[in-house]
C-alpha cells in the first residue's frame, strides 16, 4: 500500500477520534455484557464482578450493551454478531475503566 494512502487513512482515523473524544461510553446497572475469548481474568471472577456492579451477563441479544473481548478485532461469532448489531466490542482494560465509573 502506498505511503500516501496509509497517511490519509491515519489522518481520517485521527479526525474521527477527535470528533468522538467528547463522547464516552458508559454502563449503568441492569446493562447486559458478554465476554468472548481467553480473557486474563477467570470467567467466574468476571461474572462476580459484573453482578456486584449491578450488571447482567448474557448472550448476544437485543438487550446486550457491550461485548468484552480478549481481542477486540476478533472474528469470533459473538464479536461478529455484536458488530452486525452495532454493539461495541472493547478490551478488558476499557471494561475495567467502565466498571470503575459505576462506583
Explain what the structure shows.
The protein has 103 residues and is α/β, with parallel strands linked by helices. The protein has a single domain (26-102), classed as BRCT domain (Rossmann fold, 3-Layer(aba) Sandwich), CATH 3.40.50. Helix content is 46%, strand content 15%. The protein is built from four helices and four strands. A four-stranded parallel sheet has the order 2-1-3-4.
Observed structural traits:
103 residues; globular; 15% strand; alpha/beta; 46% helix; Rossmann fold; four-stranded parallel beta sheet
Strands, helices and their partners?
Blueprint: H1 3-20, E1 32-36, H2 43-52, E2 56-57, E3 64-69, H3 77-84, E4 89-90, H4 92-102
Parallel strand pairs: 1-2, 1-3, 3-4
Give the spatial strand order of the biggest sheet.
2-1-3-4
**Element order: H for helix, E for strand:** HEHEEHEH
Biggest sheet descriptor: 4 strands, parallel
Distance between the termini: 46 Å
Question: Strand share of the residues?
Answer: 5-15%
What integer is the average pLDDT?
Answer: 81
- Give a count of the beta strands, DSSP E runs of length 2 or more: 4
Amino acid at each position: 500500500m502506498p505511503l500516501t494512502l496509509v497517511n490519509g487513512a491515519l489522518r481520517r482515523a485521527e479526525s474521527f477520534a477527535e470528533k468522538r473524544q467528547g463522547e464516552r461510553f458508559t454502563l449503568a446497572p441492569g446493562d447486559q455484557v458478554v465476554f468472548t475469548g481467553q480473557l486474563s481474568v477467570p470467567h467466574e471472577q468476571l461474572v462476580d464482578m459484573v453482578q456486584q456492579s449491578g450488571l447482567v451477563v448474557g448472550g448476544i441479544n437485543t438487550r446486550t450493551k457491550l461485548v468484552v473481548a480478549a481481542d477486540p478485532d476478533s472474528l469470533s461469532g459473538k464479536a461478529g454478531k455484536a458488530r452486525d448489531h452495532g454493539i461495541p466490542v472493547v478490551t478488558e482494560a476499557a471494561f475495567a475503566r467502565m466498571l470503575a465509573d459505576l462506583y
